[in-house]
């Protein structure tokens, strides 16, 4: 609206007929208010004089409310006062007002005496135009990216319309067919058949069957081509486009031949190594461990409880991790509880949680238990055989009811968990001795996985040593190697502590090694007081025979070879090891 005063009418003139003047002002008001753009004007003091309907709608204020108010109260960044005083227009400037983008034209208002009496701003909302412009830029970028992918594809790709007429093709299609795109674009299948481009049209079959079709065809120069044509439907279920993909089958046949040649070697390597690493470094080679892992992967797909048994250090927790990581709950929490590490008086509150004030020292807001933390995930109860009998009763109830009651509370809470249990104890004997509840045992032992001791699967020892050696070399930034004698010693050693003990032995050998190559003399004793090397020599009555033989071999290569590098190569040991041993025995060139 426009303030109905003499201001804004130009210079003061002779008064005309009042009715005519009123009509003119009303017409001007109507024109300004009907404008789609925002129109705002101020006088020299910055007070609002014009504020049209579009401005009212955008700012949410009526002209009557803002008339004669300082423009800064309504539109702080208008710059109208500066324009009025500077007399300089500001044309086609992008401005942001209330998170909308406008094209702003600000100009001084001049009366008929060329005096500046205020300023006016016309703001055109271009937010949608900017969005369209940005979207157009993105579409252009996508088209450019599509063209790059289209042209760089190894496969031939060509597009045809609903009648099979060729619309476009990439360079690979030109190469496979032996025709340029200029020769083929605009051609129909009948034309291409007549000219010998191909022996049959997969596009025609796709159009006829209204589904993806894959077939083989022959080109003019005798190539056998695998072609796949996929119809694209419009909103009326009519075929608007057919995407055709072709590949020279000769290349595939060559690859198949190469694969067949490699198949024997691959099977041989798989038979010798059979090393599979499942999550978190579960390394094995033996058939027994393959059975364990295969069973764990099968059980991952079902929601039943699983009992994992085996001696300490064999990797029961890793098997549990395989089950969780490959189950439908893999994105949920995996809570591991060592039942033997929780004090008996805290067991219930740790597992099931407690309410506020449940006991002295309890948190004011209470605490969720491990069952609650495992909701929609997996809970592993490790060392389940250490669970006290009174807790076994409460655990049985939680498993049966799928709910828990916090210590100090009465309200049961539903929990959705996958329950796994692990133990190194003989639970059947514990049941016979009334140390473990039979009903809980059957609840937890729906499926069972028994992990054999390391001594029962010695073929895993070498790959485990190699795995641990690689890991600790990286960890400690070393390049340690083990001699064949060391590997043999570890292979024969009685690993009562299983994989955990072997891992410890490898790490100790790496961190204490004096030379890049570790020999049996470098191995430190195990907790039993014997080194792995000593275990292998117990059957030998004269251990010193090894040293004597070693001296003889070193003396022999010293007499036959010119350099220590050549000597070490003959003996199959590291050069530094040879020099150290020669010095030890006082052997010189």
Structural features, described:
The chain is built from 25 helices and 23 strands. A five-stranded antiparallel beta sheet has the order 2-1-5-4-3. A five-stranded antiparallel beta sheet has the order 7-6-10-9-8. A five-stranded parallel beta sheet has the order 14-17-20-13-21. The termini are far apart. It is extended and about 125 Å long. The chain is of the alpha+beta class. The protein folds into four domains: 18-127, 2-Layer Sandwich (Beta-Lactamase), CATH 3.30.450.20; 153-251, Beta-Lactamase (2-Layer Sandwich), CATH 3.30.450.20; 277-452, P-loop containing nucleotide triphosphate hydrolases (Rossmann fold, 3-Layer(aba) Sandwich); 458-585, Helicase, Ruva Protein, domain 3, CATH 1.10.8. Residues 4-16, 270-277 and 535-542 have low confidence and may be disordered. The relative contact order is 0.05.
Order of adjacent strands in the largest pleated sheet: 2-1-5-4-3
How much helical structure, as a percent, in the residues?
A: 40-55%
Q: Please name the CATH topology of the largest domain.
A: Rossmann fold
What is the typical, i.e. mean, pLDDT?
A: 83
CATH superfamily of the largest domain: P-loop containing nucleotide triphosphate hydrolases
Helix count, DSSP H or I runs of 4 or more residues:
25
CATH class of the largest domain: Alpha Beta
CATH architecture of the largest domain: 3-Layer(aba) Sandwich
What are the key terms here?
589 residues, five-stranded antiparallel sheet, 23 strands, single chain, 4 domains, Beta-Lactamase, Rossmann fold, alpha+beta, 20% strand
